[in-house]
Design a protein that fits this description.
By secondary structure, the chain is α/β, with parallel strands linked by helices. It is about 35% helix and about 25% strand. The longest helix has 18 residues, at about 175-190. The relative contact order is 0.18.
Length: about 260
């Protein structure tokens, strides 16, 4: 871990999570840099979900999670946005995308109407993720990729310091996945936020990630995608990858959480 980092970051130092007499994470140390896409990979049971829940404040942990500026000074508050893998809801419910977001943006019940101010906030949030055309669509009629962009709009209000994406394109078609990732990469650049993505799609990880962390209850290896994919630790977790497939990254392992 680089103790001389000069980037704004969320720094995890010796984060350990124990529950029910079991150690779910052990001494996890890593940086999630602002303006970069950090991707977390690992097999089932590696602790990826546990790490996310610790970051979201849903699980107690020992060690430290600090939001620091480019001089290493603590910043007082860490705003975190979260996009889950799936949103479970009744798809037959007559709820528009605008109503769904308005219910989160305002304390006013949506059945009493959406104020002009809230409607403007909703449209601005959707425009930021290239989804303004979805405002009047029923939520249950959105495709998987469209729904994830709606959830991204929700996670971005208010603008977070850390955006956590938990396998957000799992089960989404190639077009929807590409649109979602392009939006995330644009936000990474324009908003200069720290982004943590959990993914099992190693081809996508290799193409888009700035920094990769291989987890198995502790950090086995981290660095640039090429360095992680060619490491002995990666081979021990996922097995040897033939040279041609390593070059093209067409190989896809089984689902990994």
């Amino acid at each position: 871990m680089d103790n001389h980092c000069t980037l704004c970051r969320i720094g995890l130092e010796n984060v350990t999570v124990q529950r029910g007499g079991q150690t779910l994470l052990q001494d996890v140390s890593m940086h999630i840099h602002c303006g970069q896409l950090t991707v977390l990979i690992g097999q089932n049971g590696a602790g990826k979900t546990t790490l996310i829940r610790a970051l979201l404040g849903e699980l107690p942990y020992s060690g430290s999670i600090r939001h620091v500026d480019d001089h290493g000074r603590n910043l007082p508050h860490l705003r975190t946005g979260y996009v889950p893998q799936h949103l479970h809801f009744d798809r037959e419910m007559p709820l528009t995308v605008q109503d769904f977001l308005a219910a989160s943006f305002s304390k006013r019940p949506v059945w009493t109407g959406v104020s002009r101010k809230t409607r403007k906030q909703v449209l601005e949030a959707l425009e930021a993720v290239d989804a303004a055309s979805l405002a009047e669509r029923q939520l249950g009629r959105c495709s998987g990729g469209e729904l994830q962009r709606v959830l991204l709009a929700l996670a971005m209000h208010p603008a977070p310091d850390l955006l956590v994406l938990d396998e957000p394109v799992s089960g989404v078609d190639q077009k929807g996945m590409a649109m979602f990732l392009e939006t995330v990469l644009r936000l990474r650049t324009t908003r200069h936020m720290a982004i943590l993505l959990v993914s099992h799609d190693l081809g996508m990880v290799r193409q888009y990630a700035d920094h990769v962390v291989l987890l198995d209850k502790s950090v086995l290896c981290q660095g640039r995608p090429e360095d992680v994919f060619t490491s002995k630790e990666f081979e021990n977790v996922f097995g040897a990858v033939p040279a041609l497939q390593r070059d093209t990254m067409l190989w896809m392992p089984g689902r990994v959480e």
